């Protein structure tokens, strides 16, 4: 397709079969309408081919990236497994520091029940009942009220769960990090300060 001055337009690269065939016309309006329609159609075909090419390229790159990620994951798993085999006690302690916050954060209900906080209220003769008797009138928003609400499935559930998980995670993370640092310093001393090739990033701690 050429412009009015005879110069080539951007649509000359489009295959002729992609452009609708003209029909006999008796006025300039129909000719202009056909020209616009043909241009839009040709642009659409060109855009479609570009999109298909881009999709194919993304698929190829995704396969390569996936393969690289898998290889990296295998390497890290092997490093962690080797570290576990070389240091079973430290690994067990760090694993416990990961598991304990999860258990405490989700299983605090039975612990409250052991103290007398249940879904039906405070159990008579329990530790909770003794504390309640000593307090007298329990103020709204107090620790005792929050624990009672948590046991009964009220607003205290979110508060107790967050505190239980957050505190145990902080304590266990600090303990796990301290164990790691002690082990690392010990290994550096045994290896003459050269280290052992393990990095903190290879082991994830809660």
From TrEMBL:
The chain crosses the membrane at residues 91-115, 122-147, 153-180. One of its GO terms (cellular component) is membrane. It is a multi-pass membrane protein. Keywords: Membrane, Transmembrane, Transmembrane helix. Its main location: membrane. InterPro entries: IFI6/IFI27-like, IFI6/IFI27-like_sf. It is found in: Membrane. Belongs to the IFI6/IFI27 family. This is Uncharacterized protein. It comes from Lophiotrema nucula.
């Amino acid at each position: 397709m050429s412009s009015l001055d005879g110069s080539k337009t951007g649509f000359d690269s489009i295959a002729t079969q992609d452009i609708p065939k003209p029909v006999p016309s008796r006025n300039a309006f129909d000719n202009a309408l056909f020209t616009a329609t043909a241009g839009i159609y040709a642009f659409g075909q060109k855009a479609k081919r570009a999109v298909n090419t881009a999709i194919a390229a993304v698929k190829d790159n995704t396969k390569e990236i996936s393969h690289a990620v898998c290889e990296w994951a295998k390497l890290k798993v092997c490093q962690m497994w080797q570290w576990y085999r070389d240091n079973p006690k430290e690994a067990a302690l760090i694993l416990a520091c990961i598991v304990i916050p999860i258990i405490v954060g989700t299983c605090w209900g039975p612990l409250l029940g052991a103290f007398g906080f249940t879904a039906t209220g405070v159990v008579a003769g329990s530790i909770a009942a003794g504390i309640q008797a000593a307090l007298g009138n329990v103020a709204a928003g107090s620790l005792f009220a929050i624990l009672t609400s948590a046991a009964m499935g009220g607003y205290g559930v979110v508060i107790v769960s967050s505190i239980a998980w957050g505190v145990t995670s902080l304590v266990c993370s600090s303990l796990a990090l301290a164990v790691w640092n002690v082990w690392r310093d010990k290994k550096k001393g045994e290896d003459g300060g050269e280290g052992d090739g393990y990095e903190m990033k290879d082991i994830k701690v809660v």
